[in-house]
Design brief:
Layout lengths: L1 E6 L2 E7 L10 E6 L4 E3 L10 E8 L2 E6 L4 E5 L4 E6 L11 E6 L2 E5 L11 E4 L2 E4 L7 E8 L2 E6 L7 E5 L4 E3 L9 E9 L2 E8 L2 E5 L1
Antiparallel strand pairs: 1-2, 2-3, 3-4, 5-6, 6-7, 7-8, 9-10, 10-11, 11-12, 13-14, 14-15, 15-16, 17-18, 18-19
Length: 207
């Protein structure tokens, strides 16, 4: 489950109907209006759960399924399917989303327990798959649309940090990052980045 709060009296909790994981279940979304939670109507026919969400504003919310191979968008009134991939023989996961506007959205499907769908960018009205260092991102933390830090990998586990400068993704090189498996990233400024990681069985915090 994931939670986003674009305003003080506007929050969303998104997840799935089957908490046990025994079945595919269906996506579920609940909205907090400052006084009560209300169940939102999502497009019919979808399976799996919501893995991650991003909310640039109350009328611009994006969410990705964990294993359902679709992206959802809320325009302030209605949830709709913004992109959907054909079903895969093996589940193809989505792991993250970072949105800046209705026409600038990054969707991530980094490799993990299942093959990932890769990195996709909505620019205007066109979705484009990203190749190169940014092609296997799992999750990201953005300072702006031209300054995004992310955890990436060409295959599991995720051992690479990449940066987007508004033009291209590049691998971040530093001896302190060597040998780590990353699972969390938080960018507070261009010179203030936090990473949670594992080195073997030992947890590490990198700054």
């Amino acid at each position: 489950m994931t939670v986003v709060a674009p305003a003080k009296k506007d929050a969303w909790a998104l997840g799935g109907s089957d908490l046990s994981g025994a079945t595919a279940g269906t996506p579920v979304a609940e909205q907090w209006n400052g006084a009560a939670w209300q169940t939102a109507t999502l497009p019919s026919g979808l399976t799996s759960y919501i893995e991650a969400a991003s909310a640039p504003g109350s009328k611009d919310i994006w969410a990705v399924s964990g294993l359902g191979e679709y992206v959802l968008h809320y325009d302030g009134t209605t949830w709709s399917v913004a992109k959907q991939w054909p079903p895969g023989g093996i589940a193809l996961q989505l792991t993250g989303v970072t949105a800046f506007s209705p026409t600038n959205v990054w969707v991530f499907g980094g490799p993990g327990g299942d093959p990932g769908l890769g990195t996709w960018h909505l620019h205007g009205t066109t979705w484009t798959q990203v190749t190169g260092p940014g092609g296997g991102i799992a999750t990201a933390s953005a300072l702006s649309a031209r300054d995004i830090w992310a955890i990436g990998a060409s295959s599991a586990p995720q051992r690479t940090i990449v940066h987007y400068d508004g033009t291209r993704w590049q691998k971040v090189a530093s001896p302190v990052l060597s040998g780590l498996q990353f699972n969390g990233i938080d960018a507070l400024s261009a010179t203030n980045i936090w990473l949670s990681a594992m080195k073997g069985s030992k947890p590490e915090l990198v700054h």
